[in-house]
Design brief:
By secondary structure, the protein is α+β, with helices and mostly antiparallel strands. It has a single domain, classed as START domain (Alpha-D-Glucose-1,6-Bisphosphate, Chain A, domain 4, 2-Layer Sandwich), CATH 3.30.530.20. Helices cover about 35% and strands about 45% of the residues. It has 4 helices and 7 strands; from the N terminus they run βααββαββββα. The longest helix has 29 residues. It starts with a strand and ends with a helix.
Length: about 160
Amino acid sequence: MRITESVEHDASPEQVFEMLCTHDYQELKCERSGALDHQVTIEVEEDATTVVTRRQLSTEGFPDFARRLVGETVDVVETQRWGSASPDGSRQAALTVDISGTPVHLTGGVSLTPGGSGTVHAVDGELKANVPLVGGRIEKVVAPVLERAVRLEGQVGREWRERA
């Protein structure tokens, strides 16, 4: 199942990138996503920056068939591997989202490009639930959660910039 979602930030791509690669911002994002527990790791090596968040999330509100498969909570690991900036300031990242202990994952990319009110922050990826017979149903449950997570980036970004 294809996931494509974007938000706009009132800041340059470089400012948005700096925000996304700030430990405190990622902590706030985890808190606002409803994480019961979380961990943030940011590694910088030459022109590459890797941001990893691990979140334990409640499955409350999931359909019964999905909760029976995963339990009361799920551990979600999001990894963004950012490359260097293009001349116009835009950036690209490889994205993976894995739900630990399940055959559900998202692979794709994240981009920051000049546009709109400053920067368009877009996620595009392929969601797969490799579960015979119910994989499509699981994807339909998980997709809106991932789409809301992208929209949350816009909200948290506004809150972050207001605090600065």
